[in-house]
């Protein structure tokens, strides 16, 4: 896809925010929530509100795929659509092998300028973490705090089911990005008879859950079919929850 | 300065490396060391070697100022020159008020995919840290590990003088970016009668030093004239070391 735009060198220093959405036939999925998070991310980086974001998205929303909107400190605001990579579709259908790894930070000890709650353009560490996971033979990884809490994946939220309770990690306690897909899933969980709870979870607690998923906008839900090398039975809830999310 | 280049949206995700050099009348200062670090940063991010980097720098090296070379995962390799901001010149001449702040990470507990030793384009946290310092009324800040060791500044290395020993933080032990200006300064220190040592330093040890500087390519040396609100006497070594570095 040739979708090139003129930028200044300063635009390339990861100093901005972005969102990725699932562009469906009826428009970008959960658009309002994504625009709200874009604005909150910008505020966390002390950037002006991205007032033209909805217009940019509307102009670019042609067809279906993965829609990304980027907003840099210089004021560049750009939306584009790309095809969903086959690997993403495969992981949604077949599940993923995940490993856990310490992030080296404490959930409660972030610096005062911490921008973990913003979806910033500084994604080199996220990509490096996923490359590392791939070298270990895994599809993705779950970051652990120094206290041993599961936090998030480099590009996804952690969701798990224990009995009839669907859980995710509380973003404010964990100092992680608030996941839009996970929050939406928990908000609609009662419609299929599940309770919804946000709580911190240790790795052993997570491993003991009935099912685990990584939730994100384009992949939707990818079921964790092995965690740290231990295979997990497929959950009958995976197709039901995917359907609930419109996948 | 209108120096715009066409990029793809993926180029804006901070997934690449860069260098900033002091472009002097006789060319980019310490060019070989900067090109070597660019290549090492690229290797840490598992990118191909930036083979055309020297050519790009040579083509762009017109006049004097701050020269930046950027290299992204898509293969974009771009060098440009901008004017040195007046604040940088002022800080080199008048010194800086610095505060210390915990980074929330352990020097010895970085994750296996850690890219702290690479000068990556993911600079949003560095900028956020400097904005936070400015809000506290400071010019810059020094990051501390959870163990209380001084690590580095968001865009500079820490250098200090105790007696006739000039010190900086060992990059490999501290898991920080290897500072080119600091390393060069220590390598030439014997020519002015100073010993040179790399060692870890706690904040109280640093505060007890005879002089402290932040070292970087364009600012050169900025003397720390106050640390955490405590004023420090100007060191007679500041002009001597600046001269030694050609400033």
Automatic annotation (TrEMBL), chains A, B:
GO BP: carboxylic acid biosynthetic process
An annotated GO cellular component: cytosol
Alphabetically ordered keywords of this record: Aminotransferase, Transferase
SUPFAM superfamilies: D-aminoacid aminotransferase-like PLP-dependent enzymes
Example of a GO MF term: transaminase activity
Family: Belongs to the class-IV pyridoxal-phosphate-dependent aminotransferase family.
UniProt cross-references to PANTHER family, sorted A to Z: AMINO-ACID AMINOTRANSFERASE (PTHR42743), AMINODEOXYCHORISMATE LYASE (PTHR42743:SF11)
UniProt-recorded name of the protein: Aminotransferase class IV
Organism: Actinoplanes aureus
